[in-house]
Structure formats: C-alpha cells, structure tokens
Amino acid sequence: MFRWFRGLFSNDLAIDLGTSNTRIFAKGQSIITNEPTVVAVSRDHTGARKVSAVGRAAKEMVGRTPTGIEAIRPMRNGVIADFESVSAMLRFFIKSASGNRGFSAPRIIICVPGGVTEVEKRAVREAVSTAGAREVFLIEEPMAAAIGANLPITEPSGNMIVDVGGGRTEVAVISLSGTVFSNSVRVGGEKMDEAIIQYVKRRYSLLLGEQTAEEVKKRLGSASPSGQLEEMEIKGRDVVGGVPKSVVLNSDEVREALAETVSLIVEAVRFSLERTPPELAADIVDRGIVLAGGGALLKNLDVLLREETGLPVMVCDDPMCAAVRGSGLALDKLDLLEEIAVA
C-alpha cells in the first residue's frame, strides 16, 4: 500500500543516455529534455573538479574553453567513460525534469547498449541511483527503439531494428518481447564527424572543430549519390601555416569521407541478416528493416541499405527520439517492462 502511495506522487522518468544526446521522457507527458551529453568541468586551486555547465550550455563551450575549464563528453561508444561527470549531469537533468511535481524520488527506466557487460550495467545503475533515482530499470536500446518505432515486438514474428546512435550502431532481431539476435559495432554519428575531420585535414590541410564537422554532416552528408551537388564553405585552422582558413566542400567529397564508416553499418546489417533464423528472416522480407537513431537521418542511408539487402527499409517517425519514446511507453506497461528489463 505504501509503495503504491509513493508511486502515485513520484515523477517516473525514462532516460536515453546517449553518447551524443541525453533525452528524458516524463510519465504522463512526453519528451521534456533533449540536451547534448556534454559536461563543462573546471578545477579550483586545489585541483578539485567542479561542474560548470551541462547540456547545451556546455556544448557551446566545446573548442572554446580557456585554461582551467574543459568541455568533455562523458559517454563513449554508448557507455560511461567519466562516472563523476555522468552522475552530475544526470542529477541536473533529473532535478530539472522533476521540478516540484512530486514528493518522492522518481522511478527511472534507462537505455543501455545491447550486450552491455555486468560492469557497465552496474556503472549505469550506480550513476542513476547517485543522481536521485528511487528504483532503476535497464532496457536495451534496440528494444526501446523498436517499441518507440511501434513495431509489434510481443508478436511471434521477426522485427529488425537498426539503431544508429552517436557512439555505436546496434542491429537487433526481436520476437515475442525478446532479442533473438543482436549485433553492435562502435560506429555512429561521432565516427562520421571524425571521418569528415580527417578527410578535410588530409585533402585540404585544414583542421576543423567538432561542431563544424557535425554541421557539414547534417547539411552535405549522404550514404549514396542524390543527383544534386551541394556546397558549403567551411572554416578552420591551416595545418601548415597555423592561420585561419576557409575552403568550399561539396557533397560528393563528404560522401567519400563517410564511405568507410557507412560501409561498416551496412556490413553489420548484412551480418545480422545472415545470422537470423529462417522463419524470422521470412518475416523480415515482408516487414522490412526499420531505422532509428540520429544516424538514420543521414541522407539516403535507407536507399543504400535497400540496394545492398534487397529488402524494404524504412526510417521510423522521429528516429532520434525512438528509444526514449519507447522507454517512456514502457513506464505505463509494467508487465511488458518485467519482460524486457535487463537483469
């Protein structure tokens, strides 16, 4: 009775703790937080760390901080790289999300990569508990994305989801509320940004910042030719002379820069299809492959996968928020949550 009474006044939350962005879904509402997974840390005269900013405010500092302040990404490839910073960031986001709407600590569902290790699971649980959670449930990100994409995961049929995140791409075949096969490669949006930085450095002797590379990817990036050549002026530092410099980059060059990274995603999908049981493979032929995650927005990625696999490929609605939306839906379905939660 007391447990039910406390739950009535708590602010249950679902969190997608991503390498690039952290999103929070509040029970009974919708997505209320969508911020970059970035923390700005300063050190005092004793060397003690202090969090100066989180989220969007911290991302604006990337590449622009003075001595004594560092803007860091505390998540790497979907897992915690800096426990202290992640805890501080989550504490800030949870407090902002909860506001004054509840009297008890929230129950929290949080996404983790498929095949996450026991050490990584423990780190996530501890970070969320330290940030103020009353109870913590873990859901594998491909499962959450499949729910958010409205796939019939509880039915005895094959559903393939490809979640292209910031730090990794996860491919999963789901049936009867369980993962039949999953595959994960440490390739995602951030690897694409790095590929653009290295390409421009190699071809033009120009060093780009992370945010410029991300903007290039969004505006000019594509997985296959689109038939229209687009251009963009980019600015950075000349590697040889050390002075500011600008060049004009076109969409063909960006596609060339991304080719190796995109091919790794395609291979991960092909490998997963080869390992899928025949009956479920037959379902996927009919239902197709669903893309989720921010990387699914890369122009023509669905077209390339369709050409390489011969299967229907669709991008789900609002792919960037599919995982947090799916986790949020699980807040209202406790029987489903018990089936899909990671032990």
Average pLDDT taken over every residue: 90
Radius of gyration: 21 Å
Strand content: 25-35%
Name of the level-1 CATH class of the largest domain: Alpha Beta
If you consult CATH, what is the topology of the largest domain?
Nucleotidyltransferase, domain 5
Number of strands: 19
* Fourth CATH level, the homologous superfamily of the largest domain: ATPase, nucleotide binding domain
Quickly give the CATH architecture of the largest domain: 2-Layer Sandwich
Arrangement of strands in the largest sheet: 3-2-1-9-10-19
The low-confidence parts are 1-9
The total tally of domains equals 4
The total count of helices amounts to 12
Query: Which class best fits the helix and strand makeup?
Result: alpha+beta
What gross morphology would you assign? flat
Can you characterise this structure?
The protein has about 350 residues and is an alpha+beta fold. It is built from twelve helices and 19 strands. Helix 3 (about 85-100) crosses helix 4, helix 5 (about 140-150) crosses helix 11 and helix 6 (about 190-205) crosses helix 7. The longest helix is centred in the last third of the chain and has 24 residues, at about 250-275. The protein starts with a helix and ends with a strand. The model is unreliable at about 1-10 (pLDDT under 50).
Considering the chains and any ligands shown, give keywords for the structure.
343 residues, alpha+beta, Nucleotidyltransferase, domain 5, 4 domains, six-stranded mixed beta sheet, 12 helices, 39% helix, flat, disordered N terminus
